[in-house]
């Protein structure tokens, strides 16, 4: 059946498209930012969960899994090995720097490969462990995404080339690793590390080991945490991420609402006479509001579909270009849907009520 | 004969800045069911204001209007809208069709509004619609949009829209004002046919003496008052 709402939308395709784009923009903002946050967070968590060490030993104030400082003496590893219940203690330097394509961040770890691999049950699937100061190993994902492998090279630390001598699995921590000595050399931090991974002996309660470490005079003044606690708190270690996402959601709702409100406001200005005609036919205020709200709803719905489509395509293309991971969740998708449709419908409410309250005689006389 | 409309001492005062301007000064008018009444008078005499008041588009400053037993003066805006929906059909000089809808779409919209809903089957009265379109010789124009129709055809669609819901009264504001003489004659004949065939009550504002001559009664207005309540053609 012929519909006033559908025909009105078809009558002004450009304005309808702009409105749809406005709603889609709001949806995209929510989907892309939350998808990126979730994707990166889950990726970090996945890689962190492959660590077999139960305890992390670091300086107070360090950000543990995302730290970029090397202010902890490696001598603590020897002290930790003396604690009852400790099987292995492996010092690690983690260095975070801006991504090679100027977008996002990358991490490099300096580790004693043999000890690190033994502790975390990792293996080289190709090549060998790094030994020289310009050698690195990368994980399979890095090799696949970068279309590289043994024999290739990566530019690190301000463009200095590093030779890829091995590819390892499973992914764990930073995707690029070099020897601890090479990293100390590069950062000019001899004898230093960022944190020490501690593996307890089989059958020993890690919490009991933590208490023993805390009671040791030689290790006091440092921070000792269970790995499992850090993994569950990754999202919390990124300052104000939650606040940022909530602010973004609010902003998106405002953008969607304003675009639809402006479009509908223009619509009722243009269609003042038609609103007068509806009133002359005996259309109630509720009917007039419903006509405009239905139009806004259809536009919002189309914007929602477009927003989801663009988000998925953009996420895929950004992943291909920059390696950033997007993971979309139902919860945020529902929030985006609510923002797209809710923002549009609420934005149209003021113009709709204004239209419903127009004086019919003046509206009919409108040129 | 049933009285379909009673207007008693109706007044309308507009406030222009700080000045009150009286558009109607105590107009009284009775209309029997099936009457075809012309209201004539010079521009600015209050014809259109009277029509808008009778149609519930305006509220009077004083007096009383009763349409088919319902007091429109005492009614709220929502109630007057409801009376308009159920009992009044408007025809305007500028046709006032919805440009995005076809002729049939315009009729269906009126039906839907008349049915009191935002859509659905409540307003689907295809038999009546066909009858009206056939009477107004618009069967082959059903799927045309207003801009694809001539002025006369557009006004016939507007007339079809006004009568499709069998209103108690049709209020026509210079329905031939935008038409050439040939199309005016066609439209006026159709008004007359509606009146004769369906006993449709009609009030028509017109400047056109020939149009007024087709009505059963002519009312003359001047300066916001009825100066000749039941005359023949006196122009």
Tell me what the structure shows.
The complex is a heterodimer of chains A (367) and B (235). Chain A has 367 residues and is of the alpha+beta class. Chain A has two domains: 4-42 and 240-365, no CATH class; 60-221, no CATH class. Chain A has 14 helices and twelve strands. In chain A, the strands form two sheets. In chain A, strands 1, 3, 4, 5, 6, 7, 8, 9, 11 and 12 form a ten-stranded mixed beta sheet that branches. A two-stranded antiparallel ribbon of chain A has the order 2-10. The mean pLDDT of chain A is 85. With 235 residues, chain B is of the alpha/beta class. Chain B is built from seven helices and ten strands. In chain B, helix 6 (181-198) links the parallel strand 7 and strand 8 (201-205). Residues 118-122 of chain B have low confidence and may be disordered. Chain A binds chain B through residues 1-2, 4, 7-8, 10-11, 273-274, 276-285, 287, 290-291, 294, 360-361, 364, and chain B through 52, 55, 57-58, 78, 81-86, 88, 90, 92, 96-102, 104-105, 108-110, 113-114, 118, 161.
